């Protein structure tokens, strides 16, 4: 008779009956299910009592593969039984079963599903990415857009670059994970390639940017205790007001973003703040606390703050101050690095060499998450076995993808391309500014990391988010950072024609759409007029 297969019901179904019923159910074959019963009796067509047995089977499949079977049935045309299988106490709806089957869903259905089932920790532009190629995005309805965010500069090489995908596929068919408990044959090649490219002796692999920052902080603190001989638990890290280094607890403890810190305390101690670009303030902090300061963490260009570029000579002055006070200079190049600003690193604009560099985002070309911390041996070897690590850090799949991603940058001249096209794009945007000087306060950027800073008074009651919605309607996808700043950072593979198209779209939105928005939106007090940092009191943005 076989085993009993029924995890829920107190009335078990013998395996033979289960198999007989399954083979007699017309949709079972359509779903592609094959059952082998201990009984050799051939199934009869619609044997007596088959409806009753099918109903019993449906009840007993509630927990055992209900959604899975419904998905398979829906894919093969058994929509009626798929919906029936999806019904039941505590289970998903018929619509959810069809979703699980991968049926074609509209953008609105997908956005509604995400709102219902996912945490509301983002405020996305209402567009659904379905396919990407180069600088282009298609939504489920086939509408085409130009991407001007690049997943926060993670897809500098362009969406789904064929060389990166080839490396992914080839490695995925061989080996995806070893953990660092063993060696694998791809990570050493990645480590050699990365350190040689950027001129450092060693690297430590991680996965996400925030992990990279946390790793750098731990590494620099360890150096402070072992090499600088800072008293136990007294090491300090200095960071900049307006910085963004990630969302983990250790990282937000340096943040001036009230949204990132409110309600998440107590924050991690051991941090001091200084205004970005203020060398006099930094020197004072170093003089007052230098014996306990192990590192200064900064972004060469502040991305989330609104593409804020420091004064000329700032990075060189920071390098001199750090060297003079025996403090490690830690560059967060997660968003600015790997050709984004028209240099391989944004620090290269002033030809300075930080002691520690953090890379991420475009290191994986938007295909897999990869991050890394670069430093020389006297710093890196302060970390000993068992003191830091990651199961997935340095995995062979990510290592192969990272090497391919870096080769694309060099082989396709993306550094030079970003520098040239970035200047052309800013020239175009400045012409738009000349048409709307009362609305656009400033166009700024380096390479293809740019921002348009809008006047809050001229926009009101609209916001930069509203402008981005209208840009989306004109085929350009951008995202605001704060109420009045729009960041424009397309893939570095973008064409000059697409940049011109985006500039025209921006101009058209300000000319035609903004006046209508201002009539439609109810006037409220803008957050941009009010916000100041809870921690340092600094006016924000």
TrEMBL record:
Record has Transferase as a keyword: yes
Pfam families linked: Aminotran_3
SUPFAM superfamilies membership: PLP-dependent transferases (SSF53383)
Gene Ontology annotations of biological process type: L-arginine catabolic process to L-glutamate; L-arginine catabolic process to proline via ornithine; L-proline biosynthetic process; response to abscisic acid; response to auxin; response to brassinosteroid; response to flooding; response to heat
GO cellular component, one term: cytoplasm
GO molecular function, one term: pyridoxal phosphate binding
Keywords: Aminotransferase, Pyridoxal phosphate, Transferase
Pathway the protein contributes to: Amino-acid biosynthesis; L-proline biosynthesis; L-glutamate 5-semialdehyde from L-ornithine: step 1/1
Transmembrane feature ranges: none
Keyword Transferase tagged: yes
Cofactor: pyridoxal 5'-phosphate
CDD domains for the chain: OAT_like
EC number: 2.6.1.13
Family of the protein in this entry: Belongs to the class-III pyridoxal-phosphate-dependent aminotransferase family.
NCBIfam families: Orn_aminotrans (TIGR01885)
Protein's UniProt name: ornithine aminotransferase
Species for this entry: Oryza nivara
Lineage: Eukaryota, Viridiplantae, Streptophyta, Embryophyta, Tracheophyta
